[in-house]
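Bumping with the actual sequence this time:
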Amino acid sequence: MRTDSFAVRHIGPREGNLDKMLNVIGVESLDQLIYETIPDDIRLKKDLDLPRALSENEFLYHIQKLAARNKMFKSYIGLGYHETFTPSVIKRNVLESPGWYTAYTPYQAEISQGRLEALLNFQTMICDLTGMPLANASLLDEGTAAAEAMAMLFELRSREQKKAGVVRFFVSEEILPQTLSILKTRAVPLGVELVVGDHKTFDFTEDFFGTMLQYPGKYGQVFDYREFVSKAGENNIKVAVAADILSLVMLTPPGELGVDVVVGTTQRFGIPMGYGGPHAAYFATREEYKRNVPGRIIGVTKDVNGNRALRMALQTREQHIKRDRATSNICTAQVLLAVMAGMYSVYHGPEGLKYIGSKVHHSAVTLSRVLQQLGYEQTNASYFDTLVLKGNAARVREVAENNEINFLYIDNNTISVAINEATSIDDLNDIIAIFAEAAGKEAVTLNALDKTTVIPETLQRTSAFLENEVFNAYHSETALMRYLRKLERKDLSLNHSMISLGSCTMKLNAASEMLPVSMAQWANIHPFVPVEQVEGYQEVLRELEQQLNVITGFAGTSLQPNSGAQGEFAGLMVIRAYHEANGNTNRNICLIPASAHGTNPASAVMAGMKVVVTKTDEKGNIDINDLREKAEKHKDNLAALMVTYPSTHGVFESSIKEITKIAHDNGGQVYMDGANMNAQVGLTNPATIGADVCHLNLHKTFSIPHGGGGPGVGPICVAEHLVKFLPSSPVIKTGGENAITAISAAPWGSALVCLISYAYIKMLGVNGLTDATKYAILNANYIKNRLSGHFDVLYTGERGRAAHEMIVDCRPFKKNGIEVTDIAKRLMDYGFHSPTVSFPVAGTLMIEPTESENMEELDRFCDAMIAIRKEIDKVTADDADNLLKNAPHTLEMVTADEWHFPYTRKEAAYPLSYIAENKFWPSVRRVDDAYGDRNLMCTCAPIEAYAEAE
């Protein structure tokens, strides 16, 4: 075995297993399997133009050399990003723990109680600090959260406003520039007219439906919005506020001002800047808007025994169910970062947050006093952490950069300085020395902070926050370490067993890929520093873009979208811009197959397109006759066809080139959803099949961890004619010459975790990437054939092969009284997370094993499925008290004094011999979703408080 080969470590099946696996499948070689799976006319005829693989040690040396090219300046730029301290206990036990970062989205609540509790803490923290009654479990970043708020308020217009065509939305000129750019992107397809101006002179006329304010303002001034909010309410105009989360420990929370929505980022709560992300945004609003809130909400319910349990609430709002009528297209949250931010508050508690907030504020007040003594005019009358100073910006910048410090230079005569948690008295003295030198004066040395405040008494926070026990019980490292471990034990992650989710590609997140994320030279970089200070980052991002160009066959890439759904929206907005540039503003029809991901129609609607659904045939393939008929019918207005390849049914459709040609012949562009790119890399690509743009899920194919539902990165890759339209940033230049406005807040989105995909590609190299794809297809077909005779696979290719995933039909078991959900819950007793339930076909399981699982793990999973199949055969529709209906079985249940079930405890908990070696115990029995939706509770109040609600 080559010990210096990363591919040998990443790819699961061993060389000695290959012949057995091929024999089970019924082929003589891996190449024969690939030939029988992928149509020959779309196979790449030569290897990818990528370099040889680096070993893990070579890569770590390489990434350290690149890191040294990032200049570690102290940055006081602000604009929504601030240096912070990640408590080591959180860094080690969450960020660097595979128990947290390899978990899947908590759709299977019984084996996700740890993450769900951590997210409930996050929601409680947000509600407390914002003064709002309801919060979701995170969004992507502050700018996109603000855009979601605008879209929600637009949807919430009164019947009279909709009838009158009220479409104007006022945005304060104090909004962060990146947020304004995203609002512009979202407003156009919605039909919203943005009006940017001074909130102090805003005329509350009836042609406005909503407003957006910044609190404090973009350069730090704290405004009293009470009168504004009151007048808005009197005129039926709803108010959203983007608020700095740390400032809310000292400022009156927006909820107490009477606003309707509060959004922001929790980056300041222990999350590294990471050159822009990932960071968990927050979204808080009124109780009455709960069914309009984008993203996920964690709610409290009970299990079948009446014990407290958590689960994702109100899932009927989500895109996978409502499709083009969804609240938003949000599919990935920022769960891992939300967990970290929530734990930051758990660790510090209310008194700790007050200490941090007051230290930041007093540092700013002290600095302001001294700089004014040096002759600088400080124009912010009321502020939390940011000063605006009048002076020679060019001279200050020269001195500052010579001393490795960055400020924000607003114009030639205005400098902004934003103080942060990491700012010490020594740092303040360094800042003072810079301004003194720039002014030609003697510096003053500080020894202590002023304890005064410049926040008006009317805006000082008086209400308590974080009074729940969880925020007051774990303030020592020992206590928090044990709490985190307790929660981790409640979650089934990849460090326990395979997670075979179709369409989600839960593959190995290698330790060598993850290590750079914790390095300060990558983590502690502000996204708006001059690009010449980050040569290391710029090289990584440029090379990653080029690597993705080669892999997809396209000409240009934007890394800005920070989720797959954002990538879909970005790609469609680029297509929209292309049509408009050609004078085809009428092209607004988007053809989408009935089998498509739910995000596809939701994204199309967000991009201002009208969805026309095309049929699939009895084999699960796109119905070409129906597609041609609808393309020709709408040829004058056709904007795009959205297609997933291989299909959502796990098949390489042989007619794909004909499908894309139909769209082109009728004036449309082809958007390929890259969710299934794990079956393409090195063997075929989107350009070869005839697509014009695709998004890639770096958190799937390219190994960024799911983190329990995020972080994600969803870059778009485009053909030559679309490169000029790639998205821009208002602060740092990115994008094409005719770029659309921003998709995400940071110029390169979640740049920090792009390091992981960069590492994945560098260490696999040209041959390893292709082998990974081949073995993903091998593993899927091995499972398919092992389950043959026990379960029916709904769709296969023309030669009977699956792609990298397959759909197993569980609908025949209804005659036994067994639903697909029962199988999903019973798998927990066998130590496995369920495959994808009822997508894309109701009553089915979609299985995807990925290339990183070895044959032994595949066999354990297949043995479990076959054993469950035998259990199904033993029950009837009249027999509700059986192993599957009662699953999952908890430790409390199995060890109870009494046992009244018609099967043994061993059958319940240890149905196969391997389970005893590594038993995973679900922490609750089956949860009651209906009860939770009837009695929505989304903060940390004990369930006893709601016992009478039913």
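The tokens above came from a reply further down the thread. Residues 616 and 622 are 4 Å apart (CA to CA).
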